[in-house]
Design brief:
Layout: H1 31-39, H2 47-57, E1 62-66, H3 72-86, E2 91-95, H4 99-112, E3 120-123, H5 129-137, E4 142-145, H6 147-155, E5 164-169, H7 172-177, H8 181-189, E6 196-201, H9 206-215, E7 220-224, H10 228-231, E8 233-239, H11 242-254, E9 262-265, H12 269-281, E10 286-289, H13 295-306, E11 312-315, H14 317-320, E12 330-333, H15 340-347, E13 357-363
Parallel strand pairs: 1-6, 1-7, 2-4, 2-5, 3-4, 5-6, 8-13, 9-11, 9-12, 10-11, 12-13
Helix pairs in contact: 2-3, 3-4, 6-8
Length: 364
């Protein structure tokens, strides 16, 4: 990619003004669910929530196009909870591309379903499958997981989808990019013929449309894609030659006071680990998440990053999917992303919740 694609000043004032039409209390939801929403501090719906909640809560199939970090998780979480409250014998299935995103979804559903006796369980790779088999014996209301592990559990005849009346495919574009087409197709073929499908994606191409047409019933297409997050991010490049040259410049940058909470992206698992180890040897409070780490290790590192016990997190693109930390000051691309779409996703980890952020990309 042309390095100048990574250079753009922040333009927060150029965001298109979107008028919100609803309050959460306007939607058809039980009183306790409204109380849970209020307790989380949600007051005004985000644009995707404002447009998509009415259709999804009404039981319609929804094909939603929305940027990451715009509140789409709450759209399907509220729909799943309402569906189960109205149909206690039904279950819900939520499929996500990565472990971190699945964990984030589980936590959101649990917090929104407080006091409602709805049990959501997590089924992801990298975790003890025996414990997950025990979870299934408890008959959870909501199955949340990654495609491979969910299919594995179904093939073991442990996951019963015969009463699953609502299914969510989150970040389906990323799942397809990661090669999960076969797993997704299989999982959806196991569902009852009559079910609601909520499909969310950052982009909608022919592959996504194909899945939508095959498994959805007259879906309502909703697009609320503003790229508002990237408008809050001041983007620039850093010229450095070779790995050692990058490390030298990186160390100098991280020594500056304004680099308070930094997310560093590398291309490979080995490379990300090497960056973290070198930073630790240089006295920086850094750690890493990538596919070679056990799930409990990844969760511990991410928790420490959120709680400011570490201030520098090194990650691969896949492992970083689902990172939702609102106060990241800088994103540094130690290695350039494979695509511009990956770049937008990376820099979207900063400049969140109306705050400004800085993204820096190393180029030769």
């Amino acid at each position: 990619m042309n390095p100048m694609m990574f250079v753009r000043p922040a333009m927060p004032n150029q965001q298109e003004e979107i008028i919100i039409q609803h309050k959460f209390s306007d939607f058809d939801m039980p009183e306790q669910l409204i109380k849970n929403i209020n307790s989380k501090g949600y007051v005004i719906p985000t644009p995707i929530q404002d447009v998509a909640l009415e259709a999804s809560l009404a039981g319609k199939d929804v094909l939603g196009l929305a940027d990451t970090g715009t509140g789409k998780t709450a759209v399907f979480a509220l729909s799943v909870i309402k569906n189960i409250l109205e149909n206690p014998n039904d279950t819900a299935l939520v499929v996500a591309p990565t472990r971190e995103l699945a964990v984030q979804i589980r936590d959101e559903i649990r917090s929104l379903s407080g006091g409602l006796q709805i049990y959501a369980s997590l089924f992801i790779g990298g975790s003890d499958i025996r414990r997950q088999l025990d979870e299934l014996r408890r008959r959870p209301n909501v199955y949340i997981g990654t495609p491979g592990r969910l299919r594995d559990l179904y093939n073991r005849r442990a996951l019963n989808l015969s009463n699953t009346r609502i299914v969510v495919l989150d970040e389906v574009d990323r799942m397809l990019d990661m090669g999960f087409v076969h797993e997704i197709t299989q999982l959806l073929s196991f569902l009852p013929k009559e079910h609601q499908t909520l499909l969310f994606s950052a982009t909608i191409d022919q592959k996504v449309e194909g899945i939508a047409l095959q498994f959805m019933n007259n879906p309502e297409k909703i697009s609320v894609k503003t790229n508002a997050g990237s408008l809050n991010v001041d983007q620039n490049i850093i010229r450095a030659t070779g790995k050692q040259g990058k490390f030298a410049v990186l160390s100098d940058l991280l020594s500056k006071e304004n680099f308070r909470k930094v997310l560093i992206f590398g291309r490979t698992k080995y490379g990300v680990e090497e960056i973290a180890i070198n930073l630790q040897k240089s006295g920086f409070n850094a750690d890493s998440i990538h596919g070679d780490k056990r799930q409990n290790q990844r969760e511990t590192v991410l928790r420490k990053f959120k709680e400011n016990q570490i201030r520098i997190l090194c990650a691969t693109d896949v492992a970083a999917r689902g990172i939702d930390v609102k106060d990241i000051t800088h994103v540094i691309n130690f290695d350039q992303p494979a695509t511009y779409e990956d770049y937008i996703h990376r820099i979207g980890r900063t400049g969140r919740a109306g705050k400004s952020g800085i993204a820096l990309t190393f180029v030769d």
